[in-house]
Specification:
Number of helices: 10
Structural class: mainly alpha
Order of helices and strands: HHHHHHHHHEEH
Low-confidence stretches: none
Largest sheet: 2 strands, antiparallel
Radius of gyration: 20 Å
Strand order of the largest sheet: 1-2
Mean pLDDT: 90
Shape: globular
Helix content: 55-70%
Number of strands: 2
Amino acid sequence: MKAIGPVWDGNEVWLLTGGGAIFAAFPPVYASVFSGFYLAMMLVVVALVGRAVSLEFRNLEKNLLWRKTWDTVFSVASIVAGLLFGVALGNLLRGVPLDSDGNYTGTFLGLLNPYALVIGILGLSMFAFQGANYITLKTVGELEGKSRSWAKLSGITYLVLYAAAVVYTLIAGKHLLENFATLPVLWAIPVVPPVAIVASMSFGKRQQPGKAFLFSSLSIAGLMGLVGAGLFPRLVPALGNPALSLTAANSSSSELTLKTMLILAIIGVPLVLGYTIWVYRAFAGKVDPNQAGGGY
């Protein structure tokens, strides 16, 4: 908690920024996804609230039951949020049922299909791997040793699930391969995540946590690049009828809105990035578990 205390709330702000950007730039996408995934999104919100409350309340009392309760809330909320983020992404990759007006026509249980669950568990293992590497980077002693073991276990799981997801996609997600057929250089992207995972595990074994964390971050960037390469120009593929898909062209706002957003982004994003970098630099280094402060 000391390791993530100064940065967790800043990280979650990016979720709000992303949602706001989608609302302004691609209103039909926002309407379709946020209404169709409404129950799932509310579960994510509840999970994020649970994480935030746990971090703030956990150390307000010294009672052991109090602290264990909030530890449990934090753990369960983190697992739920991580899993549902992956399930949501899996449904976007698979395609969602849309009508001619772009409205979601499926059900909540329909979101829990096998492909989405595979991607959801893959996403959860990705978060676990990244988190374990971060804790290894930030802690000392017994916890550092435990987190190094967690990184090894979650890394192997991450690698196996990535392979399973790729095979599943090759069989059931042929629409995601269209761009790869027309631009073969894109086949370099699927190689990035497994290479980065193996490199991260190798540096972790050699007790070089900074490089291990760097390469685990690179694996996430590779996954996001793979998602973009597979979906473009679709933002929300329509299941069963590609003609109904929401794309960057047919769901964007007016040119004036996009220009205004671009100007705001050019001004605002560097400021936020600069502040974020400053915070991470200010709290860089190992966390001393015996040092008081920050409420964590």
